[in-house]
């Protein structure tokens, strides 16, 4: 794969530029969707009314949006009544909710065990898991954020018909944007593995839904990193300015990520 010393054989000026690499398909796991929670009953005697109401409002927004748009969100770029993409709106709702949610687990607070959080997999509604542990909620939120980002990357990499009407082509702008999205998704997944899973007792970790198992999260993280490098390699191949050393380094990185994923 070019991971050993190599030099270009053709140094002439008429080197034929390689064609665009094939379409990139992003694997997106099924969305895990939250079900309603009554924060007031569980936390009403322990937190201020305003904070309980804030938690309820933020989570209810996520529940409604994910429930309405979940079945189609990974396949279409639908628009909300506010004009923004569903992916961006739901992602923002999760980003608003997460820092408030983390208050329940701050400094080992016992509040983390007072609320039962229920999530279901949209592809199999019979598969639902309810746990009275706020770390489970944090883990589920990070997983959903990463899944939405992978969906967004998939949409960006859908081929668009070129001007000549023949060859589908993804714009360089979209490819560059997808790289940033892959890195962000990998960051959420890495955070889930390194900083959230360690808070679960061993027995509870073994009983988590398969989508939240450590091996699955690590594999999904490596997939995001590998596909980000894959896109960068494709852009380097298409560029006349990219050096052989750059292409070789990207190819080696891509092989490393995919090999690590296979060993999991």
UniProtKB/TrEMBL annotation:
Region (Disordered): 1-20
Superkingdom of origin: Eukaryota
Cross-referenced InterPro entries: BRO1_sf (IPR038499), BROX (IPR038898)
PANTHER family in the cross-refs: BRO1 DOMAIN-CONTAINING PROTEIN BROX
Full protein name: BRO1 domain-containing protein
Organism (species): Cannabis sativa
